[in-house]
Amino acid sequence: MTASDPEMAAFSSTLCMYGQGVVKGYAIGRAVVMSAAALEVAHYRVAFEDIAAESERLISAMTAARDDLLQMAASLPADAPRELAALLNVHSMLLDDPMLIQQVCSVIAERQYNAEWALATQGQLLAEQFSMMEDDYLRERGADVRQVIERVLRVLSGTTNWLPNLDAVDTEDSLIVVARDISPPDMMRLRGGKFGAFLTDLGGPTSHTAIVARSMNVPAVVGMGHVRHLVRDADQLIVDGFNGVVLINPSEQILREYRLRQMAYQDERAELAMLRDAPAMTLDGILIRLEANIELPEEAVAALAAGADGIGLFRSEFLFMGRSTLPTEDEQYEAYSFVVRTMAGRPVTIRTLDLGADKTLDGEVTVAANPALGLRAIRYCLANPDIFHTQLRALLRASLHGEIRILIPMISQMHEIDAVRQAIDRACADLESSGIPYARNILLGAMVEIPAMAIAIEPFAEQLDFLSIGTNDLIQYVLAIDRGDKDVSDMYDPMHPAVLRLIAHTINAGERVGKPVSVCGEMAGDARVTRMLLGLGLTGFSMHPQQLLDVKKEIRQAHSNALRVKVASALNRAERIDLVSLSA
Ligand code: PEP
Ligand code: MG
Question: Which of 178, 284, 357, 453 has the lowest tally of Cβ within 10 angstroms?
Answer without folding.
Answer: 284
